[in-house]
UniProtKB/TrEMBL annotation:
It comes from Gluconacetobacter azotocaptans. Keywords: DNA-binding, Transcription, Transcription regulation. One of its GO terms (molecular function) is DNA-binding transcription factor activity. InterPro entries: Class_I_gatase-like, DJ-1/PfpI, Homeodomain-like_sf, HTH_AraC, HTH_AraC-typ_CS, INH-QAR. The keyword Transcription regulation applies. Pfam families: DJ-1_PfpI, HTH_18. It comes from the Bacteria. This is GlxA family transcriptional regulator. Residues 219-317 form the HTH araC/xylS-type domain.
């Protein structure tokens, strides 16, 4: 059983950048350390950018951080963060996983930013831990690694595993580390330099876009849909969760989504199915079941109607980066 991690004892940080990593997530983490050095007027933290071969790794925005060090040449770290982004599965190979397992055996605390959590899970390094990952990848990683406790929280520090959702949240996690060593005044000084009015705690639930501006009744309905999307759901059950009548629920959904609750539910199931087809290697039939479709034929017909191709065709196209990632990367 791993012992609690002494956050105050962390001095040397490594950031292992995978192909297509999220630049904003890595930059927020490093900038927090840089600013801590500045307000402390001393090099209290140090960090290195790591790649497996030492060459600069392009992020999802096409830029690369320098200087970098090859994994084999890196001096020991107190904590190593795996930095993921788009198409993390392709960026995670056997050599990398073996190196991560070796770091764990050598007692290095391991963390992840954005989708880097997938790499730790694939390496078998998150069993028995709670962890966090970007909301866009929650459903796929839960299906693929049901033995891991994957949280909706912004970030999770569970003993010697530090996982974070991405975006600007790594800054909040680093502020927690800075506060553990120097106290709240120093953490506030760092926050002030970045014009932050507050730092978020790790146990705050990451916002899901559909819930961001929803009225309370709508949010209750959407949470039930998200939670039980793999089960048969009656509109009456959704209305009861929202504490509304079915007619009130219909009006609410039309006003805020432009669709009926039934149409929204089908669309939500299909959107989740698309993420699972793109982000996992689950059999197509299992994807349909995980998204609440009891009939493979119904799943295929509904999927083709919404996306213009059958689920199996979607799976075949997943090797194309342009089709895999038509939108900006998470985080």
């Amino acid at each position: 059983m791993s012992r609690p991690l002494d956050l105050a004892g962390l001095r040397r940080f490594g950031f292992l950048t995978l192909a297509g990593y999220s630049m904003i997530a890595v930059s927020n983490a490093i900038e927090a350390l840089r600013m801590a050095n500045r307000v402390s007027d001393a090099p209290v933290y140090e960090w290195e950018i790591v790649t497996m071969d030492g060459a600069g790794m392009p992020a999802s925005n096409g830029l690369a951080l320098h200087p970098t060090v090859a994994a084999a040449d890196a001096r020991p770290f107190d904590v190593l963060f795996v930095c993921g982004g788009v198409d993390v599965r392709t960026a995670t190979g056997r050599t990398l996983l073996a190196w991560l397992r070796r770091q764990a055996r050598e007692g290095v605390a391991l963390g992840a930013l954005c989708t880097g959590t997938f790499a730790l899970a694939e390496a078998g390094l998150l069993r028995g831990y709670r962890c966090a990952i970007h909301w866009e990848n929650l459903s796929s990683i839960r299906e693929e690694f049901p033995e891991i406790d994957i949280s909706d929280d912004l970030f999770v520090i569970d003993r010697d595993r530090l996982t974070c959702t991405g975006g600007s949240v790594p800054l909040d996690m680093m502020l927690r580390i800075i506060e553990a060593r120097f106290g709240p005044a120093r953490a506030r000084a760092v926050s002030a330099q970045f014009i932050l009015d507050r730092s978020r705690t790790g146990d705050e639930v990451q916002p899901v876009p559909a819930l961001a501006d929803a009225p309370p009744a709508m949010a209750r309905a959407l949470r039930l849909i998200e939670k039980d999307i793999d089960r048969p759901l009656r509109i009456a059950d959704i209305a009861a969760a929202a504490r509304l009548s079915v007619r009130q629920l219909e009006r609410l959904f039309r006003r805020h989504t432009g669709a009926t609750p039934a149409a929204y539910l089908v669309a939500a199931r299909l959107d989740r199915a698309r993420r699972l087809l793109r982000q996992t290697v689950m059999p197509v039939t299992d994807v349909g079941i995980a998204c609440g479709f009891v009939s493979a034929a119904h799943f295929s017909t509904a999927y083709r109607s919404r996306f213009g191709c059958a689920p199996r065709e979607e799976r075949k196209m997943r090797a194309s980066p342009a089709l895999l990632h038509p939108h900006p990367s998470p985080g």
